[in-house]
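Dear colleague,

Following up on yesterday's call, I've attached the two folding results inline so they're easy to grep. Please treat them as preliminary; we haven't cross-checked anything against experimental data yet. The first protein's sequence and structure tokens come first.
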Amino acid sequence: MRTITTNRKAFREYNILQKFEAGIVLKGNEVKSIRAGRVSLQDAYATIENGEIFILNMHISPYEKESYHTETKRKRKLLLKKKEIKRLYGKITERGLTIIPLKIYINERGIVKIEIALAKGRKIYEKREIIKEKEMKRELRGN
């Protein structure tokens, strides 16, 4: 497994409740751009529409050697089992839960996969507490 990119902001902004591995529907030049590492998950999120799950705001830069280019932030379909999508839909209808991408990677068979997570947003005071805990751990390791 080769990790292409991770969403580091997600671990800081959200409490991760559950992770899922999903396939992603891409065009040929998008796959080439992802393999080159020209993808960003910043501000990306997933939504469920008509029993299908889509990722929005995921930026894939155009592949420079192609003659045609697709839209960089288009809506892309994710491939999950229907049972998983129904479970996610039930959870996100609860207050404060969302679906965010954590990382994009290429599996052993050479297929591009995305790891998404069911997450709950953190409050500002929770973020401060986590930063304090990390600083205390760092100081203890340093001594």
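Below is the second protein, in the same order (sequence, then structure):
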Amino acid sequence: MKGPLQGVKVVELAQIMAGPTCGMLLADMGADVIKVEKLPGGDDTRSYSEPQVNGESAAFMILNRNKRGIAVNLKTPGGLEVVKKLLADADVVTENYRKGTLEKLGLGYDVLQKLNPRLVYCAISGYGRTGPYADKGGFDLIAQGFAGLMSVTGEPGGPPVKSGTPIADINAGIFAALGIVSALLARATTGRGQFVETSLMEAGIQQMYWQAAIYFATGVNPGPSGSAHILTAPYQAFPTADGWINLGGANQSNWERIVKAIGMPELGADSRFATNSDRMRNLAQLVPILGDALKAKPSAHWISLFEAQGVPVGPVNQTSDMASDAQVKAREMVIEVDHPKAGRVKAIGHPVKFSETRARSTRPAPLLGQHTREVLKGLGYDDARIEALAKEGAIRCA
């Protein structure tokens, strides 16, 4: 079964997380993603010292599966020649350099659009390629703070907290992939590629829907609410006798089921908690009451009981719990790939399922320069020219 992007050639000039996330999603869906790594060290994640598996960076491997990898020095004439040949018939190029970097090398959109009018050029930056901050670099932590995410994350009264995952980076990669696929669909009608861009700032701001709704409607900045919802209650994590569960009393009927399940029907008649507005207003009183009741039994007891009552409930898993869960396995969200150095390693699976064009993992993350010779031969280079480029320092062949 072929992937939905079979036949699409993508050149990835991006590194670390946002760009590689985009490239991995496209590669999982069948695109031929050729990752162009800089010399001498390659993608910066290769140098992350921990954790490693047989000397290979776990961070690099988990984001770069399904790609072919070549190593090129863009500061050499031979390296630029190789990349331009690669882009001459590519469908997509992705990059996350600072504004002006690729333009100085002669690889900006204006140049490449003339070289290949069908090329979809996707740029991921810190703040976007226009506006007063267009020249600034970007990092996930900085984007989370700028977007307001850190002001609403954590416990009330606590310090600013960033999301435990690099949400701006990952979200930017997802948006880039969506933009690319949309541009390819438009190209099917127009015959022309276009410039597509997103940023870590925009990827962070997009996560602020509920908080922005409150601010736009009231002029009040919502603060952190821990695990609780900012619009409905009870909808948060609660302690049990042996851990934590998430309980979703997101509407009145669920609230009524909750008080029945915990054997406290009197709470349903309590005027402090009669409606969602009442519960939100008196949340500081409601949470300890429910918490004390739930601490009497272990998580498994409550999950079974609430599920039987039709109440949304679930465990607060650690990574190991998630990875071993039967539903996660059934949905192929933890997969295994064979790496030439690291051996058999686990990775996160593709989150979109197709009935006719399956996303799949067919190759591990490449070694530095693993496919340089293969890709260059596909561009028409002979062995003598490849060796000359290697001697020049323009390329590396693993």
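For the second protein, one point worth flagging: The two ends are 31 Å apart (CA to CA).

Best wishes,
A.L.
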